[in-house]
Design a protein that fits this description.
Elements: E1 7-8, H1 11-24, H2 33-40, E2 44-48, E3 53-55, E4 60-61, E5 63-69, E6 72-77, E7 83-89, E8 94-95, E9 104-105, E10 109-112, E11 116-122, H3 123-132, H4 134-160, H5 163-173, E12 183-185, H6 190-197, H7 201-213, E13 217-219, E14 224-227, H8 230-233
Antiparallel strand pairs: 1-2, 2-11, 3-10, 4-9, 5-8, 5-11, 6-7, 6-10, 12-14, 13-14
Helix pairs in contact: 1-2, 3-4, 5-7, 6-7
């Protein structure tokens, strides 16, 4: 693996950190405690400061990265240098999974959005665990399926839907179905949202203002948005 710039944790705190990493991640947290301990012992924890790269396109891909604390933005660059946000990772999420199945290089960039604690498991260690505990493989395949579905939806929207529709559908998908409130908090900055939806920050701001003027949403402080008319929003 290419050298990273994060700080490696050692000692007792290191062990506790690994344990939290493993228990947070859905591909592992179905295992018994002893099995999670075994995985924990193969991992190392690294702190990345805001703006530091976890990995870059073209670097060797040979490890799985588990997010314990913080946020990571995964993005690609087009041939013209334009940035395309792929996803944002939060505690319990992971990246680098393609390294589990073949040797290659990263095709995207992973950048810490704030101080971020990551647990790293090398490919060789994880492959042994996959052979020993096949249910992990099934969980990873399930996550692959989810990401592929999300990627296909995003590609279709770029090709067929106007910008305001993309924004409206994104807002609708942010609603927590288990809560009565339709107030959401944007999970990313307007700049990142624009990159994710294939537009510009200025267009995002303008379209949100239009949706507010139409009585569909209400913008509040700290990236909060209240959905006033969900049915109307879905018809945009």
């Amino acid at each position: 693996m290419e050298k990273t710039h994060g700080c490696i944790h050692e000692g007792e705190h290191h062990k506790g950190t690994q344990d939290k990493c493993v228990s947070l991640v859905p591909i592992f947290n179905h295992l018994e405690e002893g099995q999670m301990d075994e995985i924990m012992n193969t991992a190392r924890s690294i702190i990345f400061q805001k703006g530091e790269m976890i990995y870059q396109a073209g670097e060797q891909s040979d490890a799985l990265y588990l997010v314990n604390k913080g946020k990571i933005r995964i993005y690609r660059l087009s041939e013209s240098g334009k940035e395309q946000l792929v996803r944002i990772l939060r505690p319990g999420d992971f990246t680098g999974e393609l390294a589990l199945f073949n040797e290659g290089v990263h095709e995207s960039y992973a950048e810490a959005m704030l101080e971020t604690l990551v647990c790293v498991i090398k490919r060789t260690d994880l492959q042994k665990l996959l052979l020993k505990y096949p249910t992990i493989s099934l969980k990873i395949l399930s996550e692959f399926s989810n990401r592929l579905d999300q990627s296909e939806k995003q590609t279709t929207r770029f090709a067929t839907e106007k910008v305001e529709t993309r924004i409206a559908m994104f807002l609708a998908e942010c609603i927590d179905a288990e809560k009565d409130s339709h107030e959401i908090v944007l999970p990313m900055s307007k700049k990142d949202l624009a990159s994710y939806l294939g537009t510009t920050p200025e267009t995002v701001s303008r379209k949100l203002a239009d949706l507010e003027q139409d009585g569909l949403i209400k913008q509040k402080l700290h990236k909060k948005i209240e959905i006033l008319d969900l049915d109307g929003l879905l018809l945009v």
